[in-house]
Structures are given as C-alpha cells and as structure tokens.
C-alpha cells in the first residue's frame, strides 16, 4: 500500500467523525486568524492570550461571553431550523432583538397582571414583534 493510499484512508477515517471535523474547523480558523495577525504585524500569541483573558479571565468576562454567546447560539439555531425547512432567513438577529424588546416593553408597561399571565403576555408580544420583523426582513 502506498503512502498516498494510507494518507487517504487515514484522512477518510478522521473526517468521518463529526467531532474531528469540528476540531479541524477550529484549528483552521485559529491558524487563519494567526496568519492574518502575523501579516498585520501583530503577535498572534499575544492577541490570542488577550482574547482568552478577556473572554474567560474574570467573572465579568465569562458572564459577557455567556451573555453574547447565548444570543448567537439561539440565532444560529433559528437559522438552522429555517434552512432545514427550506426557508432562507436573513433577519434572525433582528428578530431576536426586537422580540426581546417587545417582551421587555410588555413586562414593564403592563403591571398588575398575575405572574403567569404577565409572562405569557410578554412572550406573546415578543413573539409577535419578532414575527412582524420576519415579515419585513425575511
């Protein structure tokens, strides 16, 4: 068996695992970022160290990472669901932000409701605002 054949089989075995593909994608992304940083005369290791320290180096940084990460994960999930249904959705981030604004507005400006009804109304208002934005932005 030639070296090329062994390499091809090894690569086929590695890429058959979804975890391996994800790790390869992360490694390629980090390498591409390091290349761009090196071209722009920055030190990639210092930049990645600052990135890590800012995102995970303190309780506040970790909280901010979870805060923004949750929004991006939910938006990605929404886009994945729409793609799975055969729809093309470009306004997902706006939908989630307007939905949150609508829910916050309903929560603040509709006092005196029983808690269960208050939460339900806030969710409905937020959903309707996101729906309206999806009709506009698609």
What can you tell me about this protein's structure?
The chain is mostly helical and 138 residues long. It has a domain of 53 residues. Helix content is 83%, strand content 0%. It is built from six helices and no strands. α2 crosses α3. The longest helix has 26 residues.
List keywords for this structure.
138 residues; mainly alpha; 6 helices
Mean pLDDT: 88
Span between N and C termini?
A: 53 Å
Beta-strand percentage range: under 5%
- As a percent range, the share of helical residues equals over 70%
Shape: extended
Strand and helix order: HHHHHH
The helix/strand class is mainly alpha
What can be said about the biggest beta sheet? none
Quickly count the helices. 6
Would you count the extended β strands for me? 0
- What would you report as the Rg, rounded to the nearest angstrom? 22 Å
Poorly predicted runs: none
Give a short synopsis of this structure.
The protein has 138 residues and is mostly helical. It has 6 helices and no strands. The chain has a domain at 1-53.
Which helices and strands appear, and what pairs or packs with what?
Elements: H1 3-15, H2 18-39, H3 44-56, H4 59-84, H5 92-109, H6 115-137
